[in-house]
Amino acid sequence: xxxxxxxxxxxxxxxxxxxxxxxxxxxxxxxxxxxxxxxxxxxxxxxxxxxxxxxxxxxxxxxxxxxxxxxxxxxxxxxxxxxxxxxxxxxxxxxxxxxxxxxxxxxxxxxxxxxxxxxxxxxxxxxxxxxxxxxxxxxxxxxxxxxxxxxxxxxxxxxxxxxxxxxxxxxxxxxxxxxxxxxxxxxxxxxxxxxxxxxxxxxxxxxxxxxxxxxxxxxxxxxxxxxxxxxxxxxxxxxxxxxxxxxxxxxxxxxxxxxxxxxxxxxxxxxxxxxxxxxxxxxxxxxxxxxxxxxxxxxxxxxxxxxxxxxxxxxxxxxxxxxxxxxxxxxxxxxxxxxxxxxxxxxxxxxxxxxxxxxxxxxxxxxxxxxxxxxxxxxxxxxxxxxxxxxxxxxxxxxxxxxxxxxxxxxxxxxxxxxxxxxxxxxxxxxxxxxxxxxxxxxxxxxxxxxxxxxxxxxxxxxxxxxxxxxxxxxxxxxxxxxxxxxxxxxxxxxxxxxxxxxxxxxxxxxxxxxxxxxxxxxxxxxxxxxxxxxxxxxxxxxxxxxxxxxxxxxxxxxxxxxxx
Length: 565
Prior knowledge:
By secondary structure, this protein is α/β, with parallel strands linked by helices. It folds into four domains: 3-107, Helix Hairpins (Orthogonal Bundle), CATH 1.10.287; 128-252, NAD(P)-binding Rossmann-like Domain (Rossmann fold), CATH 3.40.50; 262-421, NAD(P)-binding Rossmann-like Domain (Rossmann fold), CATH 3.40.50; 448-544, Regulator of K+ conductance, C-terminal domain (Alpha-Beta Plaits, 2-Layer Sandwich), CATH 3.30.70. 48% of the residues lie in helices and 15% in strands. It is built from 22 helices and 18 strands. A six-stranded parallel beta sheet has the order 5-4-3-6-7-8, with helices on both faces. A six-stranded parallel beta sheet has the order 11-10-9-12-13-14, sandwiched between helices. A four-stranded antiparallel beta sheet has the order 15-18-16-17. Helix 2 packs antiparallel against helix 4 and helix 11 (254-267) packs across helix 17 (408-421). The chain starts with a helix and ends in a 21-residue tail after the last helix.
């Protein structure tokens, strides 16, 4: 017997067990009423005494108990029969009320509802016949990831311990039906129930707000399904080693990610534009390079967010002043001020009048908004970075005079989507960070020339029999194939699709911005960016149709005695 059927039977057993007493009362009342009508005498139209048959008695009690009221059958009742009918009416009505109330009570019973809910989710997961991801945690990050993946057509299953979050899955604007399980994602039984051991499970996304829960999810997923992708969200750096030991393939810290993006926008603004265009939600076109100042930065708050951002600024040799209300007296100096960062006097003491940027990085949204307003009032030109901790305050932060708002859930979601959509993108960004602004500006110029200001997507092409069968067959036959050839548009006279190769991986080698005339080999992996229709065209050439032929080379005729170049 499979698990969904067994779980359904458990639910039916619970229902019958809880309704045992009401059913016994209902059956007993009906039996007594029917028996009474077969014994109480009546008078037929001829004036002779008669008694109801069992069939007539059962029929009359049935429609009487359901309040249909068809009348006295088969003859008008005697006074004794009417007296018994009156008693039977009250008896059946009371027994029905008792039974219906007990039924509603069972339907609201947490154990019964959980059993039937789990059975429904398990059935829905078993019907999924395509790769899907387990999203553990449906807060800001989880809900955004679920929405983006559903728009991509990727199947997901949601797990969350909060019933209100599970309920929101049904009312959220998702493109497909999403099974949602209410339970502890760190419990192996819950993960298995949600489809961890399913052959179509492609990955487990541990996105809860607790590092120890995410670590346990990663460990359970790695042991029960070693082939599955495991991605963990981490709040504290101390958890990174435990998550790595638990088998996490990717560990994402939203504070580290945001701090690196700020540093990137200061050091190489063009690379920041490329990063944003390839990692933010779809429907967002390429923006202009941000203008984050150097100068002096004021960091408000003593939490991990401010400390992480300060480390990146120090690496860039940017002057920083920290306002920390919990500073010890011995640690107070010119760059560390003890006080309330929401106090305008403390901000003035930190040099807000001459500072180029301020970071409202406390753990309280109201305080961050107050810091934003006070800083803008004291210095109209100061660049304001505000941290937002709760998504419900989005409208308020949009109205606030902040130049850059950081919401951990959105930053985390963008990184998760980057890993899922284009795993090679992380390798490209790591290598690209070592390049100068001139290199990034040239790449951005090429992207704008090829893609324009439209929405850019990123994807990977793997030269394998499964990923690119057309190219693989040609290479196995000894026919050379270049990057340019797989980017040709069919029946377009040698025109290329609107895409740009960003990275070529060949074994341990990594080549940024590979040349289009590079000859391909089996096992190569190429990271592309471009328009969605370019991705579709390339897939048709690589998988579905024959590879377009290269146009004949242009031959330049040189006249006799003419100088050659």
